[in-house]
Amino acid sequence: MKACVTRSHVALTADPARVLARLFVPGQELSHDSRSRASGVLGRILALPEDEVGAVLSRVRDRYLKRHRDLPGVLTANYERIAHRVPDDVVLSDARRSLVGAWFTHEYSVEAAALFNPSAVAHPDQTGLEPGWTRFVLSLRAVGEGHLSSVEFRSGVVGPAGELSIDEPGPHIERGRTLPTWYDRGAFAAALAGQDIDRESAAFVIARLAPRFHDAELEAVLADLAGERLTRPTAARTADLARRIAACSYEVEFPPETALAERVLWPESPSESHGIEDARFVGVDDDGVYRATYTAFDGSSIAPQLIETSDFRRFRISQLAGPAARNKGMALFPRRVGGRYVALSRWDRENNAIATSVDGVWWGDARTLQTPSRPWELLQLGNCGSPIETEAGWIVLTHGVGPMREYAIGALLLDLDDPSRVIGALRDPLVEPADDERDGYVPNVVYSCGALRHGDQLLLPYGASDASVRFAFVDIPLLVERLTADGPPDAMRENSSA
């Protein structure tokens, strides 16, 4: 059968020059005289002669000003964050304040270790394009020092004859401004129920919250809980956990003058303190919103969470709940089916499954679609992003892990009206690591977080061994032909055992 995949020559690689200016606090351990190291550093800065302050600050500006959109603003903000350490009777010049901020600032290279695991969706702005062309948004997982993951973006265009180009990203990146948001009581209750706490105190809190609530309403309820601490000895711990759960939902807004590729979604909440991993973006047809599930990692546990945006400038991050919203690799369908939200799930870390939801927040028990059965996937299965709707059914790109922990990309075809029914599953991989894709941060891996339909083709971006992002075009009619010929997994097993 004719090959249905054509690789593009276009590739993206990590650029260590893309840096954030972040707060830097010297080691949290105490110094030899039992003082905070931050206090000792600050004392030495305050002792500098004023003429030396000017010379050092001038050198900082010469070396770093062009690397950041607003370096003076960053230095001032970081000074303000440690200003409580400055004695009340000390008056500082503006230059010394900025220099204090510089000593408590460092650059973090967002892509220093890796750039990989992309997803692609149609850009919200399609103006100015010729017929047959599509502008797209590419989300990327970037990894820097300490294996800390964040989400970056690029934009590009794809043409009718397989033309593909990625826009230059620009000289700066920014993490945006964090804003408070509203909370969903159902998701909040599920998160609280998952903690090892006094159920009675948890029920006290949940019963007094509205279906949607804000920080002020939560704090009012927690104040009422504290008022009953004599008969509720776990009230303080329940309140601490409730605040931590609330902190996992927030909004991020970027200045309008920033370009898409200059925006990075940086870990902001307790649940993602060690990284935001593998965002699977999809355009949702019925409300004009883009949604993405991603893996939040706090250093010891993982959880799927939700990103929502309409313009890729303001984002809302919130929690998901329910038995199917566990582990890595949730992927949302682009529309409801039978009036319900639908998602792919890998709640058990091994099998591809499907789940539904009434509200898109609470996800019930998952139903298994596919279990590992072929040599290239025997270790585990997963999806490679949201399903793509075609006239023949839902195309689900999958990944399987085989010998030597080699990752390959496969595919399923699900029934349009009943996506729990598998029409076909590829016997052999659709994409395997090519010889020049096998070396990298994690060798022998091809992995995607979402493809984009463009006419009768899929634009498939994929990470190659966590070292680069490559692109391939998949012929949809040929893929559907292969899937239909191979049939569902059960038929494959029966044929192989016959």
UniProtKB/TrEMBL annotation:
Domain of life according to the entry: Bacteria
Full protein name: Glycoside hydrolase family 130 protein
An example Gene Ontology molecular-function term: hydrolase activity
Family: Belongs to the glycosyl hydrolase 130 family.
One Pfam family, short name: Glyco_hydro_130
Keywords associated with the record: Glycosyltransferase, Hydrolase, Transferase
Ranges that cross the membrane: none
